[in-house]
Write a structure and sequence with these properties.
Layout (H helix, E strand, L loop, with lengths): L7 E5 L3 H13 L3 E5 L3 H10 L3 E5 L6 H11 L8 E5 L4 H7 L3 E4 L4 H10 L8
Parallel strand pairs: 1-2, 1-3, 3-4, 4-5
């Protein structure tokens, strides 16, 4: 019997309800999700797990998530991992300038995640 490990998607943020919902969406799509808080330890976890994509919950223009995104994008081991910002902020241009591949405005629905991940090359939700 072959043990197949589901591809990984990382969720970074401190909103536990949002993280729980994203974990459910990711699992529904056949992927493995794991969560980290928006702190420097998240960078180590990304380097260790090398997820296919990162969903990052950013709540304010000064949030720590922006610093983490910048660090991810300058690190040779993590800079090619697509990051999708999920936020109440309606500032897609800022997300893209900081290095994110996509910006989703909350509330984020399952179809939003499917489309955003498909746009960055991850076939979640496909048969």
């Amino acid at each position: 019997m072959v043990n197949v490990v589901a591809p990984k998607v990382m969720i970074i943020g401190d909103d536990t309800e949002f993280a729980y919902l994203m974990q459910r969406y990711i699992a529904q799509g056949g992927y493995q999700a794991f969560v980290a808080g928006p702190n420097p330890g998240a960078l180590d976890l990304v380097r260790q797990e090398l997820p296919m994509c990162i969903l990052m919950d950013v709540e304010s223009p000064s949030a720590q998530g922006w610093d983490i995104l910048r660090m991810l994008k300058v690190d040779p081991d993590t800079r090619d991992i697509p990051v999708v910002i999920c936020s109440w902020l309606d500032d897609e241009a800022h997300s893209l300038r900081e290095g994110a591949e996509a910006h989703l405005r909350k509330p984020v629905m399952y179809d939003d995640i499917v489309m955003a991940l498909q746009d960055v090359g991850i076939g979640i939700g496909q048969d």
